[in-house]
Amino acid sequence: MEKAMEYILQVDSQRSFSKAAECLFISQPALSAIIHKEELRLGVQLFDRSVKPVKLTSAGTKYIAAAKKIQKIEARLFQELQNHQDDKKELVIGSSAFFFVNFINKLKEDFSRQRPQITYKCIEASTEAALHKLQKKELDMVITAHNNHLKDCCFVPIRSESIVLAVPAAFDINKRLTGYALTLQQINSGEWRQQRYPCVPLAYFDNYPFILHKKSKDMYKRAMRIFHRQNMRPRVLAHIEDFYTLYFLARSGQGIVFLRDSLLKYMEPTAHLIYYKINDPLATRNINIYYRKDNTDALVRQFIDFCVQSGKS
Fold it and tell me: N or C: which terminus of the chain carries fewer CB neighbours within 10 A?
């Protein structure tokens, strides 16, 4: 739409040259000059300036009616062009195998109901590698539990998850802690978050072996800070890359592990593990979606907004 037509529509909307000028971020004399020039070109007067608020003349009424039709046509054209552009649009997402299997695939399916033209390319990588690819503009976004600020990137939380303690059932300490033990059903239903379910004192496990994440992982850093707050120096048997391996090592009786509650939704009940609630703010963390600050792609923004809304629901 031509600038003069846009300005005339704004004056009609505000019924005031001064208010329209404020909305358009230009001076009132400049606005008046632009509209006067357009009136001279058309050979008609569009506004009756002798009254306040200003009124449209009969010619102005016809002009505004036509201008609004043009505005609608332009909006419809823009939408059609946007849809055409999206026909072959691809979103490139980086994340871990866990998120792709248990989380991102559902988001893709739900978003595709709104935008069926979209295709997806999913790049499995460690958080560190994925964020590096994002900075190099090889990815549109990264979904991760990482929560540190990254140069040239932003992130927004799209949901939260909780961390539970999984202890091999064969460990004798469990016999003393039956009042703290949680069932898989209580965790998966979310019931365990209620205050009536007590948190286990971690000091009970001070003499038992732990298996932790790799030192570069967010979960390792959280675990060490939790231990520090409890004045614990646990015996660490190994550092592992992913949650699935941690789960199966704990289930085989090797050591105690920290697990995300969202992982347990996909596991069968087992008599080989006992679960406990942890009393520490670090036992809750956000799942974030990272994107580059300079990414102006409307589709990327729409997908991010969709993820945020899905997390709220």
Answer: C
CB neighbour list of residue 173: distance below 8 Å, 6 or more residues apart: 167, 204, 205, 208
Task: Tell me the β-bridge partners of 47.
Answer: 56
What is the 8-class DSSP label of residue 104?
I
Is the four-CA dihedral 94, 98, 103, 107 of positive or negative sign?
positive
What is the number of residues in the chain?
313
Residue 115 in tokens: 């935008």
Q: Two tokens at 239?
A: 């550092």
Reduced to 3 states, what is the DSSP secondary structure of residue 134? helix
Give the 3-state secondary structure percentages of the chain, helix then strand then coil, rounded to 5: 50, 20, 30
Q: Dihedral of CA 34/23/295/311: which sign?
A: negative
**Which uninterrupted H or E stretch holds 121?**
strand 119-124
C-alpha to C-alpha distance for 274 and 279, rounded to whole angstroms:
17
pLDDT tens for each residue of 159-177:
888 999 999 999 999 999 9
Residue in the structure block whose two tokens are 């646990």: 234
The contacts of residue 310 (CB under 8 Å, 6+ apart) are: 107, 110, 158, 159
27-55 pLDDT, tens digit each: 889 889 999 998 999 999 999 999 989 99
Is the Cβ–Cβ distance between 54 and 15 less than 8 Å? yes
User: What pTM was computed for the model?
Assistant: 0.64
Q: Residue 276: which of 204, 160, 180 has the closest Cα? A: 180
pLDDT in tens, 264-282: 888 888 999 999 999 999 9
CA distance 302 to 282: 30
User: 85 pLDDT exceeds 70?
Assistant: no
**Whole-angstrom Cα distance, residue 309 to residue 313?**
6
